[in-house]
Amino acid sequence: MADPLPPVDTLTHGGTAPSGDGRILILACGALAHEITALIRLNGWSHMDLACLPAILHNTPDRIPDAVAGAVAQHRDSYDRIFVAYADCGTGGALAATCARLGVEMIAGPHCYAFFDGLDRFAARGEDDMTCFYLTDFLARQFDAFVTRPLGLDRHPQLRDAYFGHYTTLVYLAQTDDATLTARAEDAARRLGLAFERRRTGYGDLETALARA
Question: Domains in the chain, ordered, with CATH?
């Protein structure tokens, strides 16, 4: 059973090591730690342990495949199987190629927005969502760490329109019913000058993928 989670800043910048005596290791992005831990508890998946790579890797997606490969090599001898809880996540197919070479499975889809929304549903939206900027529960918590500071908007707010001028709507894909997170997402939309939409997705296809792991 997964241990209580470390602070969100640790999940963002440091990642977590596995603990427990499970037979399957879920190797995940730190941005999914809350959701995967909740699913492990909800479903009684005591055969699963969780280890997270730093979520901030999403700001340099070219580094994700090597980080995953290193973690698989580090933990492979301790588990019967390793399942990679990442989608493509901006790696341009490089992560899928790495997982295929290592003989480990990963989540299907382009990114977590798609599998939270449901891959079929997200694909069906198509061009309707091309002007949408997405947040999840994690990104609502960590908006400043992933958006404001990396883009320099705290120092140069005039850059907002250069980055976000082609967007019309901030879409908050909510995994939980949390009024505080909804308020944070609404505030992010206001700061970016975008309309706000909240979609309650729950865990989407993440639960389905883990159930097959």
Answer: 8-112+205-211 (3.40.50), 113-200 (no CATH)
What does the pLDDT profile of the chain (213 residues) look like in tens digits?
445 677 888 999 999 999 878 999 999 999 999 999 999 999 999 999 999 999 999 999 999 999 999 999 999 999 999 999 999 999 999 999 999 999 999 999 999 999 999 988 888 877 668 899 999 999 999 999 999 999 999 999 999 999 999 999 999 999 999 999 999 999 999 999 999 999 999 999 999 999 998
What residues contact residue 197 under an 8 Å CB cut-off, 6+ apart?
Answer: 132, 169, 170, 171, 172
Give the angle subtended at the CA of 195 by the CAs of 191 and 200, to the nearest 5°: 105
The pTM (predicted TM-score) of the whole model is 0.90
Return the structure tokens found at 148.
């404001």
Which two tokens mark 197?
A: 């939409």
Name 197's bridge partners: 171
Q: Say whether 45 sits in a helix, a strand or coil.
A: coil
